[in-house]
Amino acid sequence: MQLLSPVGGEMGISIEANGANYIYNYDPDGSWKADHYLQITTDEDKWSAADTCDPLQDLEDALDAQEAAGGNRPEIVLMNKTTFNYIKNAQKVRDSIISQNLIATANITTARVKSFIEEELNVTIVIYNKQYKTEDGTAQQFYPDNMVMLLPEGALGSTWYGTTLEERTLMASNTANVSIVNTGVAVAVTVTEDPVNTKTTVSEIVLPSFERMEECYAMEVA
Predict the structure, then answer these.
(1) Strands (E), 34-75
(2) Which of 9, 22, 72, 178 could pair with 15 as two cysteines, CB 3.0-4.6 Å apart?
(3) Do both 21 and 73 map to the same domain?
(4) Which domain range does residue 29 map to?
(5) Distance between CA 213 and CA 138 in Å, rounded?
């Protein structure tokens, strides 16, 4: 999800664990950011400015920019509920929906706005609002506010497992029983004597690849 929400255009993964910070940079020369990322900085154009922003035009411009840069036109628009509500509350979007319905009091629902945008731009909007808990129990959103990612259909990359220390060091020894499960998770079981103690260690080294990164376009809208 970090790769699908490159805040500031920084395409990568950042992990804080075991007292260390791990940063995996997927765009070391900044070329992806230069051609596939847009941050709206003018206050009246930000999607949080309901009276003046124009999300429909911004999305169309981003689709055009991605098509010019990568040769493909994205088919999926990913965002969370907070960001979608910016579109829902935007006066220009509401006026467009009302003008199509020819009813001044048309009910501007989530379903109506979603259908309108999808029909106008020939895309599918995915609103992802699920959460996870950090190690300290704090609830966090998988997908952050104010980010929009334009994506192609189909798989974007793969999951790749590396060789863990247990797999590399203990598998060939007689001191531990090591097995690999779920294609890349190393389970090492060691037994000590006096006192008798069984220790089980489960570890993995895993990262996603992003082969279709050049077919994606990110926007920071507020």
Answers:
(1) 37-39
(2) 22
(3) yes
(4) 7-157+210-220
(5) 30
Q: Phi, psi at residue 75, to the nearest 5°? A: -115, -10
Q: Are residues 94 and 193 in the same domain?
A: no
**Whether residue 13 sits in one domain with residue 40:** yes
Cα distance between residue 30 and residue 42, in whole Å: 23
Q: Which amino acid is at 54?
A: D
Query: Is residue 194 domain-resident?
Result: yes
| Both structure tokens of 177 | 């029983």
Surface-to-core class of residue 184, CB atoms within 10 Å of its CB (0-12 exposed, 13-18 middle, 19+ buried) = middle
How many structural domains compose the chain?
2
Question: Could you write out the DSSP letters of every residue in 97-144?
Answer: HHHHHT-TT----HHHHHHHHHHHHT-EEEE---EEE-TTS-EEESS-
188 within domain boundaries: yes
- In this predicted structure, what is the pLDDT of residue 104? 59
- Dist. CA 185–CA 196, nearest whole Å: 26
Q: Is 87 exposed, middle or buried (0-12, 13-18, 19+ CB in 10 A)?
A: buried
Task: Give CA–CA dist 169/205, Å, rounded.
Answer: 15
